[in-house]
Design goal:
Belongs to the unc-50 family. Involved in the cell surface expression of neuronal nicotinic receptors. Binds RNA. With 220 residues, the chain is mostly helical. Helices cover 65% and strands 0% of the residues. The chain contains 9 helices and no strands. Helix 5 packs antiparallel against helix 6 (103-135). The radius of gyration is 24 Å and the shape is globular.
Length: 220
Protein backbone atom coordinates (compact mmCIF):
# COMPACT_ATOMS: atom_id res chain seq x y z
CA UNK A 1 0.00 0.00 0.00
CA UNK A 2 1.55 3.31 -1.07
CA UNK A 3 1.67 6.13 1.48
CA UNK A 4 -0.88 8.87 0.94
CA UNK A 5 -0.19 12.56 1.27
CA UNK A 6 -1.82 15.05 3.53
CA UNK A 7 -3.48 18.11 1.95
CA UNK A 8 -1.56 20.31 4.39
CA UNK A 9 1.92 18.85 3.95
CA UNK A 10 2.86 20.21 0.51
CA UNK A 11 3.02 16.74 -0.98
CA UNK A 12 5.05 15.14 1.82
CA UNK A 13 3.56 12.04 3.48
CA UNK A 14 2.38 12.42 7.06
CA UNK A 15 4.35 10.59 9.79
CA UNK A 16 1.52 8.12 10.23
CA UNK A 17 1.37 7.30 6.52
CA UNK A 18 5.16 7.15 6.22
CA UNK A 19 5.28 4.47 8.92
CA UNK A 20 2.70 2.36 7.13
CA UNK A 21 4.00 -0.77 5.38
CA UNK A 22 2.56 -3.18 2.91
CA UNK A 23 1.35 -6.59 4.10
CA UNK A 24 4.31 -8.23 2.35
CA UNK A 25 6.80 -5.97 4.11
CA UNK A 26 5.24 -6.69 7.49
CA UNK A 27 5.31 -10.42 6.83
CA UNK A 28 8.95 -10.28 5.72
CA UNK A 29 9.94 -8.31 8.83
CA UNK A 30 8.14 -10.80 11.09
CA UNK A 31 9.71 -13.87 9.47
CA UNK A 32 13.17 -12.31 9.33
CA UNK A 33 13.11 -11.66 13.06
CA UNK A 34 12.65 -15.39 13.64
CA UNK A 35 16.34 -15.72 12.78
CA UNK A 36 17.48 -13.08 15.28
CA UNK A 37 16.68 -14.06 18.86
CA UNK A 38 18.38 -10.98 20.25
CA UNK A 39 15.81 -8.78 18.52
CA UNK A 40 12.87 -10.57 20.17
CA UNK A 41 11.26 -9.16 23.29
CA UNK A 42 10.77 -12.36 25.30
CA UNK A 43 10.09 -10.44 28.51
CA UNK A 44 7.08 -8.75 26.90
CA UNK A 45 5.91 -12.09 25.45
CA UNK A 46 6.02 -13.65 28.93
CA UNK A 47 4.01 -10.69 30.22
CA UNK A 48 1.35 -11.38 27.59
CA UNK A 49 1.22 -15.07 28.49
CA UNK A 50 0.70 -14.21 32.14
CA UNK A 51 -2.08 -11.73 31.48
CA UNK A 52 -3.88 -14.05 29.05
CA UNK A 53 -4.80 -15.96 32.21
CA UNK A 54 -5.24 -13.15 34.73
CA UNK A 55 -6.38 -10.16 32.64
CA UNK A 56 -6.89 -10.87 28.90
CA UNK A 57 -8.31 -7.40 28.27
CA UNK A 58 -4.89 -5.89 29.00
CA UNK A 59 -3.38 -7.98 26.19
CA UNK A 60 -5.98 -6.81 23.69
CA UNK A 61 -5.59 -3.21 24.82
CA UNK A 62 -1.97 -3.61 23.80
CA UNK A 63 -3.10 -4.65 20.31
CA UNK A 64 -5.13 -1.43 20.14
CA UNK A 65 -2.11 0.58 21.27
CA UNK A 66 0.03 -1.06 18.57
CA UNK A 67 -2.54 -0.06 15.96
CA UNK A 68 -2.28 3.56 17.08
CA UNK A 69 1.52 3.65 17.18
CA UNK A 70 2.59 1.26 14.40
CA UNK A 71 -0.57 1.19 12.28
CA UNK A 72 -1.03 -2.57 12.57
CA UNK A 73 -3.02 -4.85 14.86
CA UNK A 74 -0.78 -7.90 14.49
CA UNK A 75 2.36 -8.56 16.51
CA UNK A 76 5.55 -7.49 14.78
CA UNK A 77 7.64 -9.63 17.15
CA UNK A 78 7.61 -13.46 16.83
CA UNK A 79 8.74 -13.94 20.46
CA UNK A 80 5.26 -15.10 21.53
CA UNK A 81 5.18 -17.79 18.81
CA UNK A 82 8.69 -18.96 19.74
CA UNK A 83 7.83 -19.27 23.44
CA UNK A 84 4.58 -21.04 22.61
CA UNK A 85 6.47 -23.54 20.45
CA UNK A 86 8.90 -24.17 23.32
CA UNK A 87 5.95 -24.77 25.64
CA UNK A 88 4.54 -27.26 23.15
CA UNK A 89 7.84 -29.11 22.92
CA UNK A 90 8.18 -29.37 26.71
CA UNK A 91 4.59 -30.48 27.23
CA UNK A 92 4.81 -33.04 24.40
CA UNK A 93 7.93 -34.55 25.95
CA UNK A 94 5.99 -34.73 29.22
CA UNK A 95 3.19 -36.56 27.45
CA UNK A 96 5.70 -38.97 25.98
CA UNK A 97 7.12 -39.77 29.42
CA UNK A 98 3.76 -40.11 31.16
CA UNK A 99 2.29 -42.31 28.41
CA UNK A 100 5.51 -44.36 28.08
CA UNK A 101 5.96 -43.48 24.42
CA UNK A 102 9.10 -44.25 22.47
CA UNK A 103 11.52 -41.61 21.22
CA UNK A 104 10.28 -41.69 17.62
CA UNK A 105 6.64 -41.65 18.72
CA UNK A 106 7.32 -38.63 20.91
CA UNK A 107 9.10 -36.83 18.06
CA UNK A 108 6.22 -37.54 15.68
CA UNK A 109 3.73 -36.28 18.27
CA UNK A 110 5.84 -33.16 18.80
CA UNK A 111 5.95 -32.38 15.08
CA UNK A 112 2.23 -33.02 14.76
CA UNK A 113 1.30 -30.80 17.72
CA UNK A 114 3.58 -27.90 16.76
CA UNK A 115 3.21 -27.82 12.98
CA UNK A 116 -0.35 -29.13 12.56
CA UNK A 117 -2.40 -28.48 15.70
CA UNK A 118 -0.88 -25.09 16.42
CA UNK A 119 0.70 -23.51 13.35
CA UNK A 120 -1.18 -25.40 10.61
CA UNK A 121 -4.64 -24.87 12.08
CA UNK A 122 -3.71 -21.26 12.83
CA UNK A 123 -2.72 -20.66 9.20
CA UNK A 124 -6.00 -22.17 8.01
CA UNK A 125 -8.14 -20.12 10.41
CA UNK A 126 -6.23 -16.92 9.63
CA UNK A 127 -6.70 -17.44 5.90
CA UNK A 128 -10.44 -17.97 6.32
CA UNK A 129 -10.71 -14.83 8.45
CA UNK A 130 -8.64 -12.90 5.91
CA UNK A 131 -11.06 -13.88 3.15
CA UNK A 132 -13.77 -12.13 5.17
CA UNK A 133 -12.30 -8.83 3.93
CA UNK A 134 -13.81 -9.61 0.55
CA UNK A 135 -17.23 -10.84 1.63
CA UNK A 136 -18.06 -9.59 5.15
CA UNK A 137 -16.88 -5.98 5.34
CA UNK A 138 -19.77 -3.57 5.76
CA UNK A 139 -17.86 -0.69 4.19
CA UNK A 140 -14.79 -1.91 2.24
CA UNK A 141 -11.76 0.26 3.02
CA UNK A 142 -8.03 -0.08 3.28
CA UNK A 143 -8.11 1.38 6.77
CA UNK A 144 -10.69 -1.07 8.10
CA UNK A 145 -9.96 -4.69 7.30
CA UNK A 146 -8.96 -7.91 9.02
CA UNK A 147 -5.20 -8.31 9.11
CA UNK A 148 -4.04 -11.84 8.38
CA UNK A 149 -1.38 -11.57 11.08
CA UNK A 150 -3.90 -10.34 13.63
CA UNK A 151 -6.17 -13.32 12.94
CA UNK A 152 -3.16 -15.58 13.50
CA UNK A 153 -2.35 -13.79 16.77
CA UNK A 154 -5.91 -14.28 18.01
CA UNK A 155 -5.51 -18.01 17.31
CA UNK A 156 -2.25 -18.11 19.29
CA UNK A 157 -3.81 -16.21 22.18
CA UNK A 158 -6.67 -18.71 22.35
CA UNK A 159 -4.37 -21.71 21.90
CA UNK A 160 -2.04 -20.83 24.78
CA UNK A 161 -4.50 -21.20 27.75
CA UNK A 162 -5.78 -24.46 26.21
CA UNK A 163 -2.19 -25.66 25.94
CA UNK A 164 -1.46 -24.98 29.60
CA UNK A 165 -4.65 -26.70 30.78
CA UNK A 166 -4.64 -29.77 28.52
CA UNK A 167 -0.94 -30.23 27.80
CA UNK A 168 0.54 -29.26 31.18
CA UNK A 169 -1.86 -29.30 34.14
CA UNK A 170 -3.58 -32.43 32.85
CA UNK A 171 -0.31 -34.36 33.04
CA UNK A 172 -0.47 -34.34 36.83
CA UNK A 173 -3.92 -35.99 36.79
CA UNK A 174 -3.21 -38.81 34.33
CA UNK A 175 -3.40 -41.91 36.58
CA UNK A 176 -4.11 -45.05 34.55
CA UNK A 177 -5.44 -48.09 36.42
CA UNK A 178 -4.46 -51.15 34.32
CA UNK A 179 -6.59 -53.49 36.41
CA UNK A 180 -9.83 -51.78 35.26
CA UNK A 181 -11.59 -52.46 31.98
CA UNK A 182 -14.36 -50.74 29.98
CA UNK A 183 -13.66 -47.45 31.76
CA UNK A 184 -15.32 -45.63 28.86
CA UNK A 185 -18.63 -46.38 30.62
CA UNK A 186 -17.77 -43.59 33.05
CA UNK A 187 -18.07 -41.11 30.18
CA UNK A 188 -21.59 -42.09 29.17
CA UNK A 189 -23.30 -39.60 31.54
CA UNK A 190 -21.70 -36.77 29.58
CA UNK A 191 -23.93 -37.67 26.63
CA UNK A 192 -26.94 -36.95 28.86
CA UNK A 193 -25.42 -33.63 29.88
CA UNK A 194 -25.02 -32.73 26.21
CA UNK A 195 -28.68 -33.59 25.59
CA UNK A 196 -29.77 -31.43 28.53
CA UNK A 197 -27.70 -28.56 27.17
CA UNK A 198 -29.40 -28.77 23.76
CA UNK A 199 -32.84 -28.94 25.42
CA UNK A 200 -32.09 -25.93 27.60
CA UNK A 201 -31.20 -23.88 24.53
CA UNK A 202 -34.20 -25.00 22.49
CA UNK A 203 -36.63 -24.40 25.39
CA UNK A 204 -35.05 -21.10 26.46
CA UNK A 205 -34.30 -22.46 29.91
CA UNK A 206 -31.58 -20.59 31.83
CA UNK A 207 -29.97 -23.40 33.80
CA UNK A 208 -27.71 -21.05 35.79
CA UNK A 209 -30.64 -18.91 36.89
CA UNK A 210 -32.63 -22.00 37.84
CA UNK A 211 -29.71 -23.29 39.91
CA UNK A 212 -29.44 -19.95 41.71
CA UNK A 213 -33.15 -20.07 42.53
CA UNK A 214 -32.74 -23.62 43.82
CA UNK A 215 -30.01 -22.64 46.28
CA UNK A 216 -31.86 -19.52 47.32
CA UNK A 217 -35.19 -21.19 48.15
CA UNK A 218 -33.60 -24.31 49.64
CA UNK A 219 -32.31 -22.35 52.63
CA UNK A 220 -35.55 -20.46 53.24
Amino acid sequence: MLPTTSPHSNGDPSPRDAARHTAGAKRYKYLRRLLYFRQMDFEFAIWQMLYLFTSPQRVYRNFHYRKQTKDQWARDDPAFLVLLSIWLCVSTIGFGLVLDMGVMETVKLLLWVVFVDCIGVGLLISTVMFISNKYLLKHPSRNFDVEWGYAFDVHLNAFYPLLVILHFLQLFFINPLPFLTNTVVLLYPFALLGLLYILSISLGWNFTQGLCWFYKYRVK
